[in-house]
Amino acid sequence: MTSNSFLRAARRTFTSGAAALLIGAFTVPSLVTPTIAADGPASVADLAQGLLGAVVNISTSQRVKGTEGPGAVPMPQLPEGSPFQDFFDDFFKNRPGEQGDRSQKVQSLGSGFVVDAEQGIVVTNNHVIADADDIEVNFSDGVTLKATLVGTDTKTDVAVLKVDPKGHKLTAVKFGDSSKMRVGDWVMAIGNPFGLGGTVTVGIVSARNRDINSGPYDDFIQTDAAINRGNSGGPLFNSAGEVIGINTAIISPSGGSIGIGFSIPSQLALGVVDQLRQFGETRRGWLGVRIQPVTEDIAESLGMATAKGALVAGVIKGGPVDNGTILAGDVIIKFDGRDVNEMRDLPRVVAESSVGKAVDVVIVRKGVEQTVKVTLGRLEDGEKLASSEDGNADQDNGDKAPAVATAAVLGMTIGELNDETRTKFGIAAEVSGVVITEVSKDSAAAERGIQAGEVITEIAQESVATPKDVMDRIAALKEQGRKNALLMLASKSGELRFVTIRMD
Predict the structure, then answer these.
(1) Residue 76 DSSP label
(2) pLDDT tens-digit map of 399-445
(3) Can 127 be counted among the known catalytic residues?
(4) Which of 65, 144, 369, 472 could anchor a disulfide with 101, C-beta 3.0 to 4.6 Å?
């Protein structure tokens, strides 16, 4: 979830029978109906009646250790050998529910919906059932069934459950196409706010493609339909009764609805649900690059007319494009026929692609647009590679290096990268370029977060090996009338990033 303290989830949590804090998130839904009155949609009673049976309440319980219930008194700390030790041991440690760790049972409520009546498949939010010891699904007709966990995905906050439908006829709903929803379309949400169950609210799509910093694939539908605690995991319907979103989060200073809710679009959720049902886990496509945004300064430095796409800051060793297909410094502007307008667009479209799929990627390399063919790997395997790579060569070997020839440029003091400077800054053997030995306070370099120990590997997409190379490249850029210098920097472990520095 986001660090924003106002961003709330829609799961309701109870501790020792008393209402406690809200955990989880939910989306605000809206009701879409073909007939619209002057001040809103016509009655949605028929639509709601046909959908209520497919929406369920989900209750979970978890035994939490090392916590104390309301009113619990901690055991006094007594001096060793105290004559009262045995008395307090008997009183505090032998009370029911307080054996040793004073564990307690925490119960939570959320929402979900049936997508396969024959197989008993229920979809909800991951945070609704996270860490639960027991999960129960409560249907609108009063029937309660035990549920087993099929699979979860923390990146999109989606979970799939299974119940045994034997002897109980279930009602299912279908996913619709969230990409067809427009801002202003009516939508309807059904869920379990405050444990009340079967609650219908109506609103509109307030916005699309919202990024609330809750995960790497944020692309939420924003709605003003009333969503409250306990709505997490519930469906957001269109006028045809199709699920076009999973209610996930709200912004609320008080915990109640203020008309700003967020829903995972079905276009994103459907693929996750299918993979969880088939494999019990996700299997996402992976390109194997590190990326950063293309700012106006970077676009100017690369000779691009507009700032768009995702700038490749590094290629992961052993990844799908560690063969020269895509290089650090390339800007990806289209992937498999889909435009990449912002950096955050790329991870989502790659993840939605199949592992092993061959795709066309349009890049801008040194100002020239070209298309390359890439065969995708699997993200889950790539995360292990990236983690291993990031953990290498991260040791500080002290500060005993003798002085070296240096130069001052753009608020930095730079020097040769040799055995002495490698030892001084703990720089990995595979890193090459010109080391930054000092950064002046309040300089342009300091404003960009550049630090001593980083290595300049390229300037304006040309390699540099000596301080003289750096000075020559800066001078050449100034002669060309450039206002900014694009630097590729390597960390001491070899991780790359791009920064632009103004040369005025």
Answers:
(1) P
(2) 332 223 667 788 888 888 989 989 999 999 989 999 998 888 778 88
(3) yes
(4) 65
Cβ proximity of 189 and 237 under 8 Å: yes
Instruction: Please give the pLDDT value at position 134.
Output: 92
Here the tokens at position 247 are 């209610």
Alpha-carbon distance 27 to 38, whole Å? Answer: 26
Q: Is residue 16 part of a domain?
A: yes
The Cα–Cα gap between 121 and 69 comes to: 35
Going by the DSSP 8-state scheme, the letter that residue 451 receives in this structure is: -
Which of 232, 239, 252, 491 is labelled catalytic? 232
Do residues 318 and 458 share a domain?
no
Residue 372, strand partner residues: 361
- Structure-block tokens of residue 32: 């879409």
Is position 75 within any domain?
A: no
- Provide the H-helix boundaries in 451-498: 467-479
CA–CA separation, 401 and 148 (whole Å):
61
- Please give the model's pTM, rounded to 2 decimal places: 0.68
Residue 481 Cα distances to 198, 408, 467, 484, angstroms: 66, 21, 22, 9
| Helix locations, 96-147, DSSP H | 126-129
Residue 211, both tokens: 């990024």
Q: What gap in Å lies between CA 22 and CA 9, rounded to an integer?
A: 7
Active site residue: 153, 157, 224, 330, which one?
A: 157
- Among left, alpha and beta (phi > 0; psi -120 to 50; other), residue 309 is left
315 lies in a domain?
Answer: yes
State whether residue 263 is helix, strand or coil: strand
Reduced to 3 states (helix: H, G, I; strand: E, B; else coil), residue 21 is strand
Beta bridge partners of 134: 61
Q: Which of 111, 127, 178, 301 is catalytic?
A: 127
End-to-end Cα, the chain, rounded Å = 41
Q: Which domain holds residue 313?
A: 285-390
Tell me how far apart the alpha carbons of residues 212 and 471 are, in angstroms, rounded to a whole number: 42
Q: What is the pLDDT of residue 502?
A: 87
Give the domain CATH number at 421.
2.30.42.10
**Neighbour count for residue 221 (Cβ, 10 Å):** 33
Q: How many CB atoms lie within 10 A of CB 366?
A: 13
Assess whether 232 carries a catalytic annotation.
yes
Query: H helices within 352-443, ranges in order?
Result: 379-390, 419-425
Residues 6+ apart with CB under 8 A from 299: 305, 306, 307, 308
Provide the pLDDT confidence category of residue 88 given band limits of 50, 70 and 90.
low
Q: What is the mean pLDDT of residues 230-256?
A: 90
The answer to whether the CB of 12 falls within 8 A of the CB of 110 is yes
